[in-house]
Amino acid sequence: MYFKQDTNRKVNFSGKVKLVVSDIDGTFLEPDKSVPQSSIQAVKLLKQHNIPFAFATGRMYAAIQGWVEQLELDTPQIAGNGAQIVDPTTNQELCHYYFTHKEIVWIVQFAKANNIVPVFFSSSDVTSTKLAETDMFLARNNEFVQEKPEDFFVDPKKQFDKILFLSMEDDIPKLQQQAQALIELAKAENINIQTVFSEPNIFNLVPSQATKSSAIKTLCKHVNCTIHDVMAIGDGENDADMLASVGLGVAMGNAEQITKDAALAITLDNLNGGLLNAIQHIIMNAEL
């Protein structure tokens, strides 16, 4: 891992890491979605040194719970790009943000007008009006889409915490155009939601309060540290704000350029143990 010469960061690093937060896809996992031994070793190393570890992922909590239990994590975990924080020791939610009914109806109308089949998330359920080929990108994440009628999604009693627009690789330019159109229209019509690409073919919509960076502030209160004491590691566009908002933001070697620009340090890629490389660095240099 090496440090950039960055003097313009909005959050200074305290010099001592008291909490480590990691993205999953592209960071904790290898490109084929498998868990490398190096990532397991990284988490064990943190536990040996009593440094709390949490995931901060776009996945729903139910899709990562198996790893949380396998690794015996007791720090609250961030899911849904910050929409949900769950304490694994009690399975109780510290917070959970949902779209308003008005926002859901607006998104449904936009999707219908643009021939988009959105996928809706709510706690452990993943639903859509129609099953699609792109559902395979969610199945690999242990998120399986169920088909529901259209009126299911505009029922005021239903609560959703994340909505995805997905595309096949050949349709990425079209998805990017649709995403930009949604962002511009939402701004013009005062629809206050967060939007970000987690992967080039996966466009995320979440409630306005839901960000990984704001969720990390909640974790800091839980483990009794400040944002200046946090090391966050990630690779995707949806990790850039997180890396810029903590004391030590670390971008994977395979990270998007916007994410590398937001980081203070760069580690190896996810084929070469980038997570472990970063963890070993902070352990060997307890006071940086």
Task: Describe the protein's architecture and organization.
There is one protein chain. By secondary structure, the chain is of the alpha/beta class. It folds into two domains: 2-96 and 211-284, HAD superfamily/HAD-like (Rossmann fold), CATH 3.40.50; 101-207, Hypothetical Protein, Haloacid Dehalogenase-like Hydrolase, Chain: A, domain 2 (2-Layer Sandwich). The protein is built from ten helices and 15 strands. Strand 7 and strand 8 (125-128) form a beta hairpin. Helix 1 runs parallel beside helix 10 (274-284). The chain is globular and about 55 Å long. The model has no long low-confidence stretch (mean pLDDT 95).
Q: How much strand?
A: 15-25%
Number of helices: 10
Sheet having the most strands: 6 strands, mixed
Helix content: 25-40%
Silhouette: globular
Number of domains: 2
**Total beta strand runs:** 15
Model regions low in confidence, pLDDT < 50 over at least 5 residues: none
Distance between the termini: 13 Å
User: In CATH terms, what is the fold-level topology of the largest domain?
Assistant: Rossmann fold
CATH architecture of the largest domain: 3-Layer(aba) Sandwich
Helix and strand content put the structural class at alpha/beta
What is the CATH class designation of the largest domain?
Answer: Alpha Beta
CATH superfamily of the largest domain: HAD superfamily/HAD-like
Rg measurement, Å: 19 Å
Write out the strand line-up for the largest beta sheet, numbering strands in chain order: 1-15-14-13-2-3
